[in-house]
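Lecture notes, structural biology module. Today: joint structure prediction for complexes of two components.
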Amino acid sequence: MTRTRSIGRRLTLLLAGVAALLSILSWGMVSGLARQAAERTQDNVLAASATAIAETLRSEQGEVRLELPYSAFSMLGAIGEDRVFYHVAAGEEFLTGYANLPVLDRPRAPGTVLFDTGTFDGEEIRIASVTRPVLVGAEPLTVSVSVAQTRSGVGAISRELSRLAALLSVAFFIVAVTLSAIAARTSLRPLNEIADAVARRGPSDLRPVKREAPEELAPLLSSLNRLMERLAQSIRRSEDFIAEAAHRVRTPLATVRTQAEIALRSVEASDERQRLRHIIRAVDESSRSAGQLLDHATVAYRVEDLARDSVDLADISARCVAALEPTAAMKEIRLILRTEPAKVAGDAVLLDNALRNVLDNAIKYSPEDTLITLAVTADAAEARVSVCDEGPGLGDCPAEHLKERFRRGTHTEGIVGSGLGLTIASDVLRAHGGRLDLGPAEGGTGTCAALVLPLL
Amino acid sequence: MRRACLAIALTLIAATAAALELEDHRYYQGTGDTVLRIVSTADLEVFEDYLIAFQAERPNISIDYSVVSSADLHGAIRDGAAFDLALSSAMDLQFRLANDGFAQSYRSQATEALPDWARWRDLIFAFTTEPAVVVISTRHFEGLPLPATRQELTAVLRDNPDRFNGAVGTYDVRVSGLGYLFATQEARSTDAYWRLSEVMGRLDPQFYCCSGQMIDDVTDGRLALAYNVLGSYAADRLAQESGGEVQILRMQDFGNVMLRTALIPEAAEEPAVAGAFIDLLTKLGMRETNGDWPLPPLSQNTDLRSTGFGPIRLGPALMVYLDPLNRRSFLSEWEDAWEQP
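The predicted structure, tokenised, for the full assembly:
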């Protein structure tokens, strides 16, 4: 699997990038607005100051007179420590103030305040200018009043606000990144939940995933389900194939065996008899393996839709013992059965199958002339069918491995087997909510296999 | 561009460096070659302690101290006279120098410790708060209630014209920058000023250039009352020679409080040394109690605070009365009130 970058991280980074962009944008905008507001404030104060001065204009003895009001200048100190310049001119004639102040000479209606930016004495200034006609004698004379101020106060105010805005933007960014991380994790949660649900499933659970999924995940989920369905179908098909194959092999094998037995009876020469016996044994083993393959397929098929009938393990045990007694007898093995009633819920065919495989195993691996004890017990919650032999034991292979398909123990040389028996038993028990315990027999060299099932 | 500001008509405050009229001058030899040239309106008798304190800190620096009138000082700095430090009691003129670009910026820990109202643009620094007071000769006021407000003072003067005729004195605002500042600020703040002026104008008032002479004349008994005298000078004088002859009255209705300010002129050749001197002054200005220093600190002592009047604000409004048109109309009104035939 090639891993690309995590969606969550990518989402978080993307959102953080957006947040950073927005933070910078908002900082720039707030700074710009702050500058504008400060400038507007200065304009207003300058306009008020110029207007206040213009209001004192009057004519006396044919001369324009004015009196700078104290407040006109004291209000200019409100913005900051800025230098103040002013200029009053009647028509072309300079009246008072700073003669060199660059004043506006744009035409304008009396009473309207004009603003301009310029430099004076090496500093940037803002000028507000207002005109008023004053009647001198019979002639109306246009008097212009300009008040100018340097802009360091405005600069200081907007710098301070800009700094504040920067702090706010950083705070906003941090909050946004935190929220982005949370949002990314939250929106990815359904994905993780589905992944967990799939991961939690048993190895052969191929049922469709039925789960509430967000719209975006629905295609993924349905593809997954389709894939699982196809997989299940293909597994079923191969099981069918195996069952079919096993069945088809078994029938001719039975014919071969019968013919071989007939031949055995009619043949006198001992080496030929020996050869025929070999054939019969090989045919037996083949037929057994085919039977087990069939069993395995049956188990796989029936487990999918497990029946839950009330089954008494004592009955099944008795049937099994009866069925396998002849095989055991051939090896001079005695089967001892001890039962007590133990009812479980399950599929009688499967349970029979499982027990037969375990018992068959025990017979197969036991030396001649030994005992195999089959005991059915029940305690508070569990029913137990234990099959104990006097064989060579499990060897050093861990018990769990023996339950795997086609896996065989270390003491199996010379014995024909498919390695499917314990797998079948184990699968059946797991499907019933039980387990197969393998361990050494108490006080002996043998092995105990116990089928453990929950009681009804 | 800077020179261009000179075009502003300050013709009434005409003075040039060449015609600088020294009221006093003293040279303090230091061990090194550096000379700090100070131009100041403060008399040597109140300011010498500061110069000695500075030389104790920096013995290698010689100090050249010139005392001039505040108008002369303003004119000299505008003309680019070679001074390293300008100390003046005329806040308005000092402010104008700073506003018009004749001051150098200076910044240090000591100046940053100053309250906002005591500095402007790092160009001008206040180091004292000095109230304007009325100084009276107790002999002349014998048997009369001591006035506490301008109204009461007006009443006393009006009711006893014989006793006070020719015996009241004040600044000649036409020549004294500080007198003009006090008069304009007072006229702006209280109507009682003009009523009082009218009454005093009828009493053949004497006009002075400086606080020192006024206090001298009160001490000598030539004056019964000196109006708008620098309180710090008066207190200093009282401490030296009183004999109960002289008393300081603080008007309760309104009182001007002036800030003595320092600035480093644009033409200064030793701005760093001047800065060190400003540090000394501002540190002394920030002291909590008066101590032995002749000039009061910035932290307003209790009797100043009780009047509830803050110092004159260091800001552009100070330039209003410096405007020639305003000055002309104020002076004509002032002359109408004070010079009655």
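Point to remember: The longest strand of chain A covers residues 123-136.
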